[in-house]
Amino acid sequence: MSKTSTGRQTTWVEKALRAALYAVLIIMAAVYLMPFLVMLLTSLKDVEEIRTGTLLSLPSTLDLSAWGKAWGEACTGNNCGGISPYFLNSFQIVIPAVLISTLLGAINGYVISLWKFRGSDLFFAALLVGCFIPFQVILLPMARTLGWLGIANTTTGLVFVHVVYGVAFTTLFFRNFYQAIPGELVKAARLDGAGFFTIFYRIILPLSTPIIVVTVIWQFTQIWNDFLFGVAFSGFDTQPVTVALNNLVNTSFGGKEYNVDMAAAIIAALPTLAVYVLAGKYFVRGLTAGAVKG
Amino acid sequence: MNTKAANSEPKKAQSGRPARLSLADWMPKIVMAPTVVVTLVCIYGYMIWTAVLSFTNSRMLPSYKFVGVEQYERLFNNDRWIVALTNLGIFGGLFILICLFLGVVLAIFLDQKIRAEGAIRTIYLYPMAISFIVTGTAWKWLLNPTNGFEKLMIDLGFENFRFDWLVNPDMVVYCLVIAAVWQASGFVMALFLAGLRGVDGDLIKAAHLDGAGTFTTYRRIILPSLKPVFFSAMVILSHIAIKSFDLVAALTNGGPGYASDLPANFMYAHTFTRSQVGLGSASAMVMLGCVLAILIPYLYSELRGERHE
């Protein structure tokens, strides 16, 4: 630890550089935090205070009425029941969609990495393309299909769509994870007479907890934050919260209540923010796994 | 289906080696079948369907009267599409460049044994957890000329400060850039930070022994070894840019006029609200072309890399 042992001396130049480094990092942190802070401050002010104050001025009183209004009374389009019904819609879409797509991804990943058959690699490559296509290219045919199946504008329809286009990602995650499992493990189990599902259930699934967590978090975030499918395929009563929020903010009659808009936006962001705060490590792993796919 | 399969398992176990083409051999194929079918239909089938529609005169409903490349001609003679495409160029280009720059710089800075690194990293990355709709809502408020930054600066004493990009047709696309960079740059930082942590420590030590300073080490050794991360980040960011739809919907709704439209918004508007299914399909195919132009070289190099290992 002494200066001589490291052969370096802390000069004032180094100290200044170090201080500058911290300054830059802290300023940037403030920049990233600022929008959220402004949203929070705005949601706690009344309309008059918003008009007279500035973005960063503190609210004079702690006024939670905008939150109550955003939750239960605000008008999205013609419906004035707040965003709470849509918030619940989102959960009704997200929970089954996440569970089904994760389960399918696990089984597909298991097959592709440990039970390869002729064409399974080719299929995996074909599936990967599904992670990247712009969804505009499937939007209209899917709308027609949902109509034929009689599930247009329903929660079931949205779950179906999210599962279909989520499976590419979940399969990718599980495949990459299972790729590291030695094939001998499966071979040995087969010699012992274990079958396809026994091996999956007894050997593979118990090893899979980390990748299940990552996949569930990734899918939850993706589906919760979706807007395109929500706006294209949901009915008035089945809209997810992102669509409702957008309608609320773009509703233009009457005086604009920015405090209510901001409260609604924070409510819409809370579930994924909570996941991020509670399981940030897995969230980041999901991001990088989805990113560096390979 | 699954229960049947589970029941058949013991039989196979008793017979010792699996018989040729027993159910157990088919099991992997059977469980994959639904995904295969759904993928072929809902990804490739629909893609072809949209491609077919783009060569028809479909308006409100799909029709199958073929008109050749007429829709593509209409598309590229459509001022709104040209604006959307130009916007994508400006938005995508700036978004990618700024995110990469910020991502690299912040990652290198954070890599200097910073106290509270975890907390700072968490702050940089949290926008990525949020929906673009929320991001758009937040920035619509911040960039609002009467209440947002402009007012803040005027109240701080800069009385002539003007910041009206959100309502200025020439500048509104830069508002999209600001919000999107805020959202995604932390993610790029995380990618690079992971990359930096993966650089071989011995290489860096060797460079130091050779007398290379921190700056030289980064420039000559560390950054070049992060090329794959650069590449991945670029592909993902350009992919985000081409798909951007929700940010525009929430932040500007394409306005003023259609000055901030992106191709995704053009496609949606023409297909679902303006009854121009043929034209909308053609625009979707152009978007697909853009993605494939980036994706194919990327996948090719990735897969080739895998084989070399």
Provide a descriptive summary of the structure in words.
The complex is a heterodimer of chains A (294) and B (309). The N terminus of chain A is likely disordered. Chain A is an all-alpha fold. In chain A, 75% of the residues lie in helices and 0% in strands. Chain A is flat, with a radius of gyration of 25 Å. The longest helix of chain A is centred in the N-terminal third of the chain and has 32 residues. Chain A has 15 helices and no strands. In chain A, helix 4 packs across helix 14, helix 8 runs antiparallel to helix 11 and helix 14 packs across helix 15. Chain A has two domains: 61 residues, no CATH class; 211 residues, Orthogonal Bundle (MetI-like fold), CATH 1.10.3720.10. By secondary structure, chain B is mostly helical. Chain B folds into two domains: 32 residues; 232 residues, Orthogonal Bundle (MetI-like fold), CATH 1.10.3720.10. In chain B, 72% of the residues lie in helices and 0% in strands. Chain B has 14 helices and no strands. The longest helix of chain B is centred in the first third of the chain and has 32 residues. Chain B: Keywords: Cell membrane, Membrane, Transmembrane, Transmembrane helix, Transport. Chain B: It comes from Marinomonas posidonica (strain CECT 7376 / NCIMB 14433 / IVIA-Po-181). Chain B: InterPro entries: ABC_transporter_permease, MetI-like, MetI-like_sf. Chain B: It is found in: Cell membrane. Chain B: Pfam families: BPD_transp_1. Chain A: Belongs to the binding-protein-dependent transport system permease family.
